[in-house]
Design a protein that fits this description.
about 25% strand, 19 strands, alpha/beta, Rossmann fold, single chain, 11 helices, seven-stranded mixed beta sheet, six-stranded parallel beta sheet, 2 domains, binds beta-D-glucopyranose, Quinone Oxidoreductase, Chain A, domain 1
């Protein structure tokens, strides 16, 4: 089978021939790949600083944002049938009996660090014609989401981030209880960055009722600003407005959703976080370099304003189910906007430019059909 893979020892990214997988357990499902999204993590793996092939193998098949169609099910699989659309999760649990999160099916919170991740860390990914997976790691997708469901995995980041925000802010009477109003009504959120994670996060925040501001580099007018405004968020460019000016425009910032992966602008916004605010970090910058941070001021704010800071990585089944449900909502409310998040579709042969060339568009997808 055709597969897009990285060979770290040779520092190469290639389209290669990968053996077709077998169903080796009656709980297995064979899936035909339809779409695979490309993200910053894939591009980082292609610079050979992150990710690892399965033990003893020379290459790693890439791809962790995927939509596929079931083509064969094992004898014990009752929840899927041939023709069903599925989105697989990414992380697989560590083997240790004492890892409570993994044993509870919450490997996104793995406590040992010995988890593996499909297409990233020690397990082949989905950028190939077919794969085999345990039924319990697959999520059912309605047929009506055929052209959007490749966005489910990147949306899980927002789903998990927001779930943590609601859990943390359960300390406050935070959710709006006015009948007919969504629970974020009356709260203000700032999204840092207008890439796919930022745009999908902003959609989720608008859906939850937040007054949502997207803060990103490019000055207006630009296509991403127009897209963001088309679903009811506001767009402010950091080119003409610094973090303090943004905070004056927004008012009390209840939530920051960081989706920019850049420490400088993130800490500048952390300084602007409001009373009882929560800051959600999602970006994974390279662990190098130093930036000046106003430590004493940040510490004062965090204490005197009861602030909470959470990091969020990977996602559990609830986040995948929430993402698939919310994609359906986005499609109903903002069909053109959610379609526009997928900026291009390509054949597998176009892999090199997409993975190692100049990044452009919002979400680029490789289609295996
Ligand atoms: C993926 C996550 C993964 C993380 C770290 C992200 O791009 O969406 O599933 O946990 O990278 O490897």
């Amino acid at each position: 089978m055709k597969a897009v893979a990285v060979l770290p020892a040779l520092r190469e990214v290639r389209l290669l021939d990968h053996p077709a997988p077998d169903l080796s357990a009656d709980t297995h499902v064979r899936v035909r790949t339809l779409d695979v999204g490309i993200c910053g993590t894939d591009r980082e793996i292609c610079t050979f600083v992150y990710g690892a092939p399965p033990r003893g193998e020379s290459y790693l098949v890439l791809g962790h944002e995927s939509l596929g169609e079931v083509v064969e099910v094992g004898g014990a699989v009752t929840q899927f049938k041939t023709g069903d659309l599925v989105v697989p999760s990414v992380r697989r649990p560590c083997p240790h009996a004492h890892c409570r999160p993994c044993r509870a099916g919450l490997q996104d919170f793995c406590a040992t660090g010995d988890f593996v991740e499909r297409g990233i860390n020690q397990v082949h990914g989905y950028m190939t014609e077919q794969y085999v997976e345990e039924a319990r790691h697959l999520n059912h997708v309605p047929a009506g989401l055929r052209h959007l469901a490749v966005l489910a995995e990147p949306l899980t980041i927002a789903e998990k981030g927001l779930a943590q925000a609601w859990a943390t802010q359960g300390r406050l009477p935070w959710a709006c209880t006015t009948p007919g109003k969504p629970r974020g009504h009356g709260l203000r959120a700032v999204v840092l960055g207008a890439g796919p994670i930022g745009i999908l996060g902003a959609m989720k925040l608008v859906l939850e009722g937040f007054d949502t501001w997207v803060y990103s580099r490019s000055p207006k007018p630009n296509a991403k600003a127009a897209l963001v405004e088309s679903f009811g968020a506001r767009y402010v460019s950091s080119a003409g407005t610094d973090a303090a000016q943004l905070a004056r425009q927004v008012g009390n910032i209840d939530l920051v959703y960081e989706a920019v992966g850049h420490a400088g602008v993130s800490f500048a916004l952390l300084e602007m976080l409001g009373q009882n605010g929560i800051f959600i970090f999602t970006g994974i910058p390279a662990p190098e370099g130093h930036i000046p941070v106003p430590g004493p001021q940040l510490m004062r704010n965090i204490v005197l304003k009861n602030q909470a800071i959470v990091g969020t990585v990977n996602a559990d089944r609830a986040a995948f189910e929430g993402a698939i449900r919310d994609l359906g909502e986005f499609q109903k409310r903002w069909p053109a906007a959610i379609r526009a998040v997928i900026s291009s579709r390509h054949k597998p042969d176009d892999f090199r430019d997409l993975l190692t060339g100049h990044a452009r568009g919002i979400k680029n997808v490789i289609s295996f059909e």
